[in-house]
Structure formats: structure tokens, C-alpha cells
UniProtKB/TrEMBL annotation:
This is Helicase C-terminal domain-containing protein. Residues 3-64 form the Helicase C-terminal domain. GO terms for biological process: gene silencing by siRNA-directed DNA methylation. It is found in: Nucleus. Gene3D superfamilies: P-loop containing nucleotide triphosphate hydrolases. It holds the Pfam family Helicase_C.
């Protein structure tokens, strides 16, 4: 479902924000997005988790906007 939703979002020029309680789930999603779309972390994929330092977290937020 997520891959199809992202494909649709691309056609209407919308961004997608995915939340998960578990880092393992986020890593799986990140890996799938890389495999399916050829996306890379830091470019099309902005990966944020609770262990991330505040300055890096803010940088990701700014890049998402």
C-alpha cells in the first residue's frame, strides 16, 4: 500500500511523511524506497528517529519544507 500511495503522491506533487514507533520498521521502509525508486537517504529520503541529535533533526525538518 505504501509504495502505491507514494507513487500517487508523486503524480500530484505531494510529499509523504511516514511515522513508526519502531526504528526497524523505518529502516525496512527506507530500504524498500531505495530499492523500488532508487532513492537515497539525505536526498529523497529524510530519515529521522529519536536518537538523532537536535541540530541534525532540525536540518532534516528544514530540508523537508
Amino acid at each position: 500500500f505504501l509504495i502505491d500511495f507514494i507513487r500517487f503522491s508523486e503524480t500530484v506533487k505531494e510529499k509523504v511523511l511516514v511515522f513508526s514507533q519502531y526504528i526497524d520498521t523505518l529502516e525496512l521502509i527506507r530500504d524498500q524506497l531505495s530499492a523500488v525508486f532508487g532513492w537515497t537517504e539525505g536526498e529523497e529520503i529524510l530519515y529521522m528517529h529519536g536518537q538523532l541529535q537536535q541540530k541534525f533533526r532540525q536540518r532534516l525538518i528544514n530540508n523537508f519544507d
